[in-house]
Amino acid sequence: MVSKLLRFGRRQLHTIVSRDIIKPSSPTPSHLKTYNLSLFDQLAVNAYMPVVAFYPSSSIFQSPHDKTLELKNSLSRTLNQYYPYAGRLAKSCPTYVDCSDDGVEFIEASNDSPLSDFLHQSAHEDLDQLFPDDLIWYKSNHKGHTDENESTSPLSVQVNHFSCGGVAVAVSLSHRIADASSIFNFLNHWATATRSGAGEHHDLSHINPHFLSYKTRNVNLPKNMPDRPQGDYVTRSFVFPNSKINDLKAKITSMTMETGEPISNPTRAEALTWLLHKCAVAAASKTNSGVFKPTGVCHALNLRSNLVESLPETSVGNLYLAMELCDYYVYTVISRFPTYGIDFGWGKPVKVTVGGVVKNVTIMMSTPKGDGIDALVSLDRQDMKIIQNDSELLAFC
């Protein structure tokens, strides 16, 4: 399969060169063969979370084949701990994962561009080709009616080789089974296993996943739950340096001082949420003939350490409710996750990002050097044209 992109006057070829199934190196014990999903997991959106990490050329391996072989071997060992990821779950209203050791699809692809050119010349939509089989948020659901008896894999992997020797490791993980924290923990576990080698003396227990045990629930979920956003929308990146964020925080403090309820020290996330939401709503009102439409705001948070009984940070699962993204603007911050610590033994990634991004969702990540915030903003195409020229927003970029 060959996908082609016309970009800056040259034809870029991205080619799938191989497909393989990676199974856990040891069989899953019989008492762990069924992993029941919690009620919150069952209510989670039917989508795949796509994350990709980019690495420059490395002299550690003599050929891309050697690098890929080591990734396959370490993935097999990692799946011993993440055994539900190698199982199967129903595409429609799943209640459990069959931990059958059927394996994870491992796709290898090549791109005829140097990594630096791809990163600097590509639009965000060009990242789609780096992920396995269109498993990007809701895109995998656009292929028509789903058979209720059909099953799917919770996890798929694609390793992309660039002409310069650089590589992009992309994973797509079902939101039915895990959240953003879980996918970054998995990537770091896999990277540590790769870096540690195949020896049996490496203790990785400190990063082992924590799967919670749930009793079987017979819940009749509605068939028409919100499943995918509609409309023509695009994703763009806005980078805010720390110095400009400090200016924004000072502006907010000054503005709120006049109200008698000053916000003396807003967090970076609070400040950027205020700015981005203000500009997004203004853009939406303008494209709607100047009419303001009330909308909700939702912040997705990692609650593992904030519960009455704290959960380990490596706990796998969801704790949220699905909602119409069309009526809400959702903001989430993943800057505290170990995104730039994903080291497979070739050094730290030069860029880590999220593919796709759903309409009216903003994902805030750290910049590679930790000197700012990279906000991935997804909006209606017409709203995006306006916000990209918003002078107040651009003043802090």
Strand content: 25-35%
Q: Nearest-angstrom radius of gyration? A: 21 Å
Q: How many distinct beta strands?
A: 18
Question: Which residue ranges are poorly predicted, with pLDDT under 50 across at least 5 consecutive positions?
Answer: 1-10
Molecular shape: globular
CATH level-two architecture of the largest domain: 2-Layer Sandwich
Instruction: Find the structural class using helix and strand composition.
Output: alpha+beta
Query: How large is the count of helical segments?
Result: 8
In CATH, the topology of the largest domain is named Chloramphenicol Acetyltransferase
* Helical coverage, percent range: 10-25%
The first-level CATH class of the largest domain is given as Alpha Beta
CATH homologous superfamily of the largest domain, by name? Chloramphenicol acetyltransferase-like domain
Attribute tags:
single chain, Chloramphenicol Acetyltransferase, 2 domains, 18 strands
Record the SSE blueprint:
Elements: E1 2-7, E2 10-22, E3 34-36, H1 39-43, E4 48-55, H2 64-78, E5 89-90, E6 96-98, E7 104-111, H3 115-121, E8 151-152, E9 155-162, E10 167-174, H4 180-196, E11 210-211, E12 233-241, H5 242-257, H6 268-287, E13 296-300, E14 315-316, E15 328-333, E16 351-354, E17 361-366, E18 372-380, H7 381-387, H8 391-394
Parallel strand pairs: 7-9, 11-14, 13-15, 15-17
Antiparallel strand pairs: 1-2, 2-7, 3-6, 4-10, 4-16, 5-8, 9-10, 12-18, 17-18
